[in-house]
Design brief:
Layout: E1 2-6, H1 16-31, E2 36-40, H2 67-78, E3 83-86, E4 99-102, H3 107-110, H4 119-130, E5 136-139, H5 142-152, E6 159-161, E7 183-186, H6 195-209, E8 213-216, E9 232-236, H7 240-249, E10 252-255, H8 264-271, E11 276-278, H9 282-288, E12 293-294, H10 300-312, H11 314-328, H12 333-350
Parallel strand pairs: 1-2, 1-3, 3-4, 4-5, 5-6, 7-8, 7-10, 8-9, 10-11, 11-12
Length: 351
């Protein structure tokens, strides 16, 4: 089977979709070496040092200015692709081969203020779904699968949930005794991550216990902008190696997101042996599986209490760490690859 994968999200150096695409392709090529997988994009994508030799994104040969309407369909037909995977809310208007459309979440439709540049997605994706441009729709959680079926009126057998996993590089190891305790928040700095709320809650904790808060992630154009203050550490975008260290040495990972399609940092933290404090969002609850402390994303007092418990009750933290490690073992990129490949095969069968 020859599969084309939308490589456009790779123009952004970090983020959940970027990591998803790289880990998925690696796992697919390991599990199905007889298949061919190719990133396709009308925009230049820089090679990354850790990519295998064959991973390239060749420039389009024609109609690059009308990529989704003409350029991509012609490329899929000319190169005889069996399936196209639209990894970021889009598939071609002109269907020249079966396609799978990924709906990572429904945040563009839940709150327009969460995405200042998502007008095109908000308008285009519902039409692609109504016109059956995608053979199947892929979500990352059952919570978003149900939400997509209800919002867009999709037939349940057209929507499949396939969970993600933490990368193999995330492994538990003892905390470095030379590192002072800190709380860690990982993810793009954007509105729905609820970071101003987190910083306000942390300030109360800081007054009592002087434990810093580290924010690791690139700031999106519409994301919150924090002024420097004592105890608040802004790391910006970090390398994967640095991220491993941050997870392993954190007192706890705090993730009060208002809405998620999955919540990959939760699994990465758990697999690294970190205790996790997170919100009651349905997809996050599904991923956490009872192995994390959870609180209402608008209840500041509850979050202050939860963070303080990480400092004053080490036994509870140890229990969260152990529960998280057990939960993370239930996910793997091999499983993700096998289930995604089955979706590709079903898309081919439906034609």
């Amino acid at each position: 089977m020859k599969v084309g994968i939308d490589g456009t999200p790779l123009t952004v150096p970090t983020g959940g979709v970027t990591r998803y695409m790289i880990e998925l392709r690696r796992a697919l090529e390991t599990a199905f070496p007889q298949d061919q997988y190719q990133f396709l994009s009308d925009q230049p994508v820089a090679r990354r040092p850790d990519w295998p030799t064959g991973w390239t994104t060749p420039p389009p040969r024609s109609f690059s200015r009308k990529w989704w309407l003409l350029g991509l369909p012609l490329t899929l037909r000319r190169e005889r692709f069996d399936v196209f995977h639209g990894t970021d809310f889009s598939v071609p208007y002109w269907r020249t081969c079966p396609s799978v459309l990924s709906l990572h979440d429904l945040s563009p439709w839940r709150d327009a203020g969460w995405h200042i540049g998502a007008d095109r997605v908000r308008q285009r994706t519902p039409w692609l779904l109504r016109l059956n441009r995608a053979s199947l729709v892929l979500t990352l959680s059952e919570a978003v699968r149900r939400e997509a079926i209800n919002r867009f009126g999709l037939q349940p057998d057209r929507v499949v949930a396939v969970p993600l996993a933490a990368g193999s590089g995330f492994r538990a190891r003892p905390r470095d005794p030379r590192t002072a305790p800190y709380f860690l928040s990982v993810g793009t700095l954007e509105p729905r991550k609820n970071l101003p709320f987190l910083v306000e809650a942390w300030r109360e904790v800081w007054k009592r216990h002087r434990v810093p808060l580290v924010l690791a992630g690139r700031r999106r154009e519409d994301g919150p902008d924090f002024s420097p203050e004592e105890g608040l550490i802004l790391h910006g975008a970090v390398t994967e190696e640095s991220l491993y260290d941050l997870y392993c040495n954190a007192l706890a990972v705090v993730y009060p997101s208002l809405y998620e399609g999955f919540g990959l940092p939760i699994l990465e933290a758990m697999q690294s042996g970190a205790a996790v404090l997170t919100s009651l969002d349905p997809a996050v609850t599904e991923v956490a599986g009872g192995a994390a402390w959870q609180g209402d994303a608008t209840d500041r007092a509850a979050w202050v209490e939860g963070m303080c418990a990480c400092i004053t009750e080490p036994t509870r933290v140890a229990q969260w760490r152990e529960a998280g490690l057990r939960r993370a073992r239930e996910f793997s990129w091999q499983r993700t690859a096998l289930e995604t490949h089955a979706v590709y095969e079903e898309a081919r069968r439906r034609g």
